[in-house]
């Protein structure tokens, strides 16, 4: 039997407009959002550091990057730099490496399916969405 879908983080539900107070986890830990994004870790090469800077700025601007997420972002950037290093050497990445990289991309909303979980914050249409139901 499969494990099923991973739960969506509560702050992503708020952004998407799908939060329900009756299903809210009341004792979930809260961490500080990052306002001033730090420079890349020293062990990242040019590819990893470039991803760190570009992705980090976007996540901070979207107000979704928390202090504890820096370690996962570092892991993503390191996996990306290893992937790029192999590609430049004309080597194939293993299935496990590709799966791990895709999983990290998904965690940061970098796949079409994971992006659907978060709305862009645009205005929603006003009015009753069910006003026309039952009418011909």
UniProtKB/TrEMBL annotation:
Region (Disordered): 1-20, 112-136
Protein's recorded name: Terminase
Species for this entry: Pseudomonas syringae
């Amino acid at each position: 039997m499969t494990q099923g879908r991973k739960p969506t983080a509560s702050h992503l539900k708020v952004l998407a407009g799908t939060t329900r107070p009756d299903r809210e986890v009341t004792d979930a830990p809260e961490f500080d959002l990052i306002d001033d994004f730090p420079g890349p870790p020293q062990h990242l090469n040019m590819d990893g550091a470039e991803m760190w800077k570009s992705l980090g700025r976007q996540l901070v601007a979207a107000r979704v990057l928390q202090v504890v997420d820096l370690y996962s972002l570092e892991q993503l950037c390191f996996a990306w730099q290893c992937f790029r290093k192999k590609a430049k050497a004309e080597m194939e990445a293993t299935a496990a490496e590709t799966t791990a990289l895709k999983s990290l991309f998904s965690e940061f909303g970098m796949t079409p399916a994971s992006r659907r979980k978060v709305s862009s914050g645009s205005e929603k249409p006003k009015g009753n969405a069910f006003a026309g139901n039952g009418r011909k």
